[in-house]
Amino acid sequence: SPCRFCLYPGLSEDLVGTHPPGAHSLVAVSVGYFLEDFVDMLCNQKLHQSWELLFHHSVVIVCFGIAVLFHQYVGFALVALLVEINSIFLHLRQILLMANLVHTTCYRLNSIINLGTYVVFRIATLAWMTRWLFLNRENVPPATYAVGTVGMAIMTPMNIILFYRLLRSDFFK
C-alpha cells in the first residue's frame, strides 16, 4: 500500500532485496488470490469471455511467484499491487452494470473515479515500473530482467486497451 512507501522510504530505493514486514506475506496471499480467481474463471466462464484476464493472471502469478519463492523483488511486486487499488472501482462498475444502474449518479461518479484511479494506479504505476526496470537493468539478472520486461510489455498494452474501452463505453457512447 502507499503507506508502506512512507513508512519504509528505503523501499523506493531497493525494490529487489528490501521489503517491510508483512510484504512477503501480502504478495504470497496475492498469488493465492490470483490462482483462485484463475481457476474460478476456467471453471465458470467461457474462454472467449475471460482469455484476457486469464492471460493477465498468468503473468502476475509467474512474476509474483518468483518474488515469493526467491524472496527477491518483493518490493517490486508491492509496487505492482498498487494497480489493484483501481480494481475496486472496476469491480464496482461491473456490479452497477449487472444491477442495471448505468443511468445513475452512482455509476457516473464511479466512472469518473474509475478513470482517475486507472490513470494514477494502473498507467502511471506501470510506467514507473517500466522505467525502474530499464534504469536498473545492470543490477537485475538477465532471466529476471527478461521476465520483468515481458511482463511489462504484456501488461502495458493490455491496460491501455482496457482504458480505451472504458473511456469509449462510459464517456463516448
- How many discrete domains? 1
- Seen as an oligomer or otherwise, the chain set is single chain
Helix content: over 70%
Question: In DSSP terms, counting alpha (H) and pi (I) runs of 4 or more, how many helices?
Answer: 7
Précis, in short:
This protein has 173 residues and is mainly alpha-helical.
Explain what this protein looks like in three dimensions.
The structure is a single chain. This protein has helices at 2-7, 23-44, 47-70, 74-81, 85-98, 105-135, 142-171. The chain is mainly alpha-helical. α2 (23-44) packs antiparallel against α3 (47-70). Helices cover 78% and strands 0% of the residues. The chain has one domain (24-171). It is built from seven helices and no strands. Its main location: membrane. The chain crosses the membrane at residues 51-70, 76-92, 112-134, 146-167. This is TLCD2 protein. It comes from Sagittarius serpentarius. It is found in: Membrane.
Key structural traits:
TLCD, mainly alpha, 173 residues, 0% strand, globular, 7 helices, membrane, transmembrane, single chain, TLC-dom
Strand-helix topology:
Blueprint: H1 2-7, H2 23-44, H3 47-70, H4 74-81, H5 85-98, H6 105-135, H7 142-171
Transmembrane segments: 51-70, 76-92, 112-134, 146-167
Domain TLC: 1-173
Protein name: TLCD2 protein
